[in-house]
# Entry
Amino acid sequence: MELLLNYTPLLLKGTVLTIAVGLTSLAISVVLGLLGAWGKLSRSPVAQGAAKTYTTIVRGIPDIVLMLLLFYGGQQIVNQIGDYFGWDYVEIDAFTAGVTTIGFIFGAYMTETFRGAYLAIPAGQIEAGMACGMSRWTVFRRIIWPQLVRYALPSFGNNWLVMIKTTALVSIIGLQDVVYLANAAGKSTRQPFTFLFGVLIIFLILTSISNAGLNWLERRYNIGHERN
# Structure
């Protein structure tokens, strides 16, 4: 325990980076999820096909493979394109590669989350809003969005809890998150179990705080509604 206390500043630094990776990835996944849900619900065959292809690819490829493909292969492709157009060398840093990959992966899961939540909204409410003269934006803001959040929250919460644990993958591409730093400290002190146990505690704290926040959101958006 004393050893962990000595390395607390280092682990806290890694924890802050882990949280930054998680939140940035979450923002990317929400945007991709909303676009994917729109594509699957669209009447356009092209949009439907693109959304289905996206979710199929993500479900069929391991997360670690996508991470390595983007970090190494993506950089090579970008620079090959750059050579063709005469651009300067472009280096994709580990943070960008990490959050882009995790956001891309969980965007597919968020797609199904938002799609299912939208389908749970009674169609009659949307039709009634349009019949009352509301614009599409007003219908979305006043009718769709509040219910979309309420129906999506349980699945959204599960995705976030899995995502915060998935951030550990960024350590394999050299990003100095809490897992990377703990592993390095464990090797230098020859006490890897001590530091991995510390990481376990840190992730338990993060997920516990997340659970508390998600429960608060569920209570807030379920005001006036009976829980099933």
In short: The chain has one domain: 16-176. Residues 8-41 form the longest helix (34 residues). The mean pLDDT is 88.
